Amino acid sequence: MIQISNGNDSTGSISSEMRLSTTWAVTTGLVAFLILIVTTMASAEQTATESVKSTVDEVISILKSEELKQLGRSVERRQKIEQVIRQRVNYEDMAKRALGWPWTDLTDRERQEFVALFVQLLRDTFACRIDNYDDEQVLYLSEQREENFTEVRAKLSGPKTETLLDFRLVDVFGHWYVQDVVIDGAGIVSNYHAQFASIIRDHAYAGLATKMKEKTLVVKAFETTMAP
């Protein structure tokens, strides 16, 4: 679904080593976006499904805003969405899970840097698709709980495709946190973990950090050039 690539020859290595499957590419956009937005700070009175739905609804209302769809307001639109995201996401936990065991070897400074790079990677994944939101709908199918863990099954339905989603949440002191989203059988966090592990195996952690920095710089340059 998510390609860490920009098509530039200077960053060809990150494109080839961090490219996901064709199936994931088809679901890029809102699905990638959902892993960011549904890690909610919901009250204990909410079910996991209600927690997911309330946050998704808030973001979709921004996506559907006719005012924010106007030419020249795409940056403002993204900023509003990012404000919602930052209130609800435990970026450090998500980054830690995606990186895996190398996290334990990082210094505090390196951990902070990796979390920042991971956040930027996730942001870049969905940002360009936000402007092309095609009125996809999220249908909630079922909820299954076992102790402190819950799986909320849903379907992303749009004009061109339908995708099955499994939101995997954990209840921590009455608050629901998403641990992963499984898209047609493939988990987003676990998929990143596989990509990162492959790069670390060949280039060590320093090589992964360098590639992520290169990708961030290229995207920022592109956005500056293309800004309305």
How would you characterize this protein structure?
The chain is α+β, with helices and mostly antiparallel strands. Helix content is 52%, strand content 18%. The protein is built from 8 helices and 5 strands; from the N terminus they run αααααααβββββα. It has helices at 12-17, 22-26, 30-37, 48-63, 74-86, 91-99, 108-130, 188-226; strands at residues 137-146, 149-157, 162-172, 175-183, 186-187. Strands 1-2-3-4-5 form a 5-stranded antiparallel sheet. A hairpin with a 4-residue loop joins strand 2 and strand 3. Helix 4 (48-63) runs antiparallel to helix 5 (74-86). The longest helix has 39 residues, at 188-226. The chain is globular, with a radius of gyration of 17 Å. The two termini are 27 Å apart. Mean pLDDT is 75; it is low at 1-7, 9-26, 39-44 and 219-228.
Query: Main beta sheet: strand number and arrangement?
Result: 5 strands, antiparallel
Helix/strand structural class: alpha+beta
Q: Kindly report the spatial arrangement of strands forming the biggest sheet.
A: 1-2-3-4-5
The whole-number mean of residue pLDDT values reads 75
Task: Give Rg in angstroms.
Answer: 17 Å
Helical fraction equals 40-55%
Instruction: State the order of secondary-structure elements, H for helix, E for strand.
Output: HHHHHHHEEEEEH
Distance between the termini: 27 Å
* Total beta strands: 5
The number of helical segments is: 8
Key traits:
228 residues; alpha+beta; disordered N terminus; disordered C terminus
Q: Summarize this, please?
A:
With 228 residues, this protein is an alpha+beta fold. 52% of the residues lie in helices and 18% in strands. It starts with 11 loop residues before the first helix and ends with a helix.
